[in-house]
Amino acid sequence: xxxxxxxxxxxxxxxxxxxxxxxxxxxxxxxxxxxxxxxxxxxxxxxxxxxxxxxxxxxxxxxxxxxxxxxxxxxxxxxxxxxxxxxxxxxxxxxxxxxxxxxxxxxxxxxxxxxxxxxxxxxxxxxxxxxxxxxxxxxxxxxxxxxxxxxxxxxxxxxxxxxxxxxxxxxxxxxxxxxxxxxxxxxxxxxxxxxxxxxxxxxxxxxxxxxxxxxxxxxxxxxxxxxxxxxxxxxxxxxxxxxxxxxxxxxxxxxxxxxxxxxxxxxxxxxxxxxxxxxxxxxxxxxxxxxxxxxxxxxxxxxxxxxxxxxxxxxxxxxxxxxxxxxxxxxxxxxxxxxxxxxxxxxxxxxxxxxxxxxxxxxxxxxxxxxxxxxxxxxxxxxxxxxxxxxxxxxxxxxxxxxxxxxxxxxxxxxxxxxxxxxxxxxxxxxxxxxxxxxxxxxx
Length: 444
Prior knowledge:
Elements: H1 3-10, H2 14-17, E1 26-28, H3 37-44, E2 53-57, H4 65-68, E3 76-80, H5 85-92, E4 96-98, H6 103-111, E5 117-124, E6 132-134, H7 142-148, E7 149-157, E8 170-172, E9 178-182, H8 196-205, E10 214-217, H9 221-231, E11 239-245, H10 247-254, E12 270-275, H11 279-285, E13 291-293, H12 296-299, H13 302-306, E14 311-316, E15 319-321, E16 326-327, E17 330-331, E18 334-335, H14 342-351, E19 356-360, E20 364-366, E21 372-374, E22 376-377, E23 395-398, E24 401-404, H15 410-419, H16 423-435
Helix pairs in contact: 6-7, 8-9, 9-10, 15-16
């Protein structure tokens, strides 16, 4: 049987394919743009006949039908490695549950059988002449997840770009149970518009950047603003090594700033693990020989990051305290996102000989009543999850400056952190630091 005959034999409707799911199964959608929209809808339609089916995903970019069609959770429980805005609503409603992890270890949860997979359902690009399907925009922990699966169903989507990878980037028709075809538009997540404060924070970080650095930047308004600053600057020969490729990088490629020529590892190649952004970004990646996808166990491996030498990591955070503890994933006990790769890159950047890591946030935020609160707290007391411990806190940036914390004593940290707090809260924070005995009388 040739590959086209095998493809035709395995080609079924989504309704037929999801019959493979049984009560009590764990179904995995992988992450981000691998979300199988047709299969999700078909599985949701079985809500009256299935019970205790666990669905696992991460960073949902469209409403998930097993959630939308089963609001009482009679059939499905939704589990997440990382939360998007959509996921956050499900968690807030008590209908979805976060699985704590750090990205460099996520694949090992599958290989060590901590995370069972009875049925894997993922979106891939169309089959090539050799019988292979590209995983496209999601490398991540895909191969480990599929290797752990009892059954594999592919949702073949002509809109999924073919992305070259160093490993774990494709699957053969012989390895799958069913194939379903789809032409649904891929999930998109264009970068948000930068605010004036985002731009001010970006301006504070910009002086630390120089020619030839390898960049890892997160997603959101501040990284977008920083990307704009770099694109308009004289910086040149930058490299890309990032867990998540977003439209911020597209700007840098289009401006000719990223060449990857100075990288000591994977020279001449930009490297990423997952991608979400605009349709323009996806088209840019399609058959782009200049960029490689790689598993998260490689991209986020601190030993790999160490070898990049002039490595700069820039990510967002939610709050910090006067000890230097950083929360980047919850607000109190409310789940906002996840640990993701923040600690991976903070650790890896420090290990690199000339590495730098920045965690950025606005100094204040407004609550629903319009009241202004400081993001810098005396100490965490409301159940906030610590993402980066004080022992590894790198440089923290707000619109008031950058506080470099490595090697500082408790009183030096308190002084540095308060110096980047909003002026309206500094006296209050100094009083707290005095009460907590981390403030010298000779401090400013």
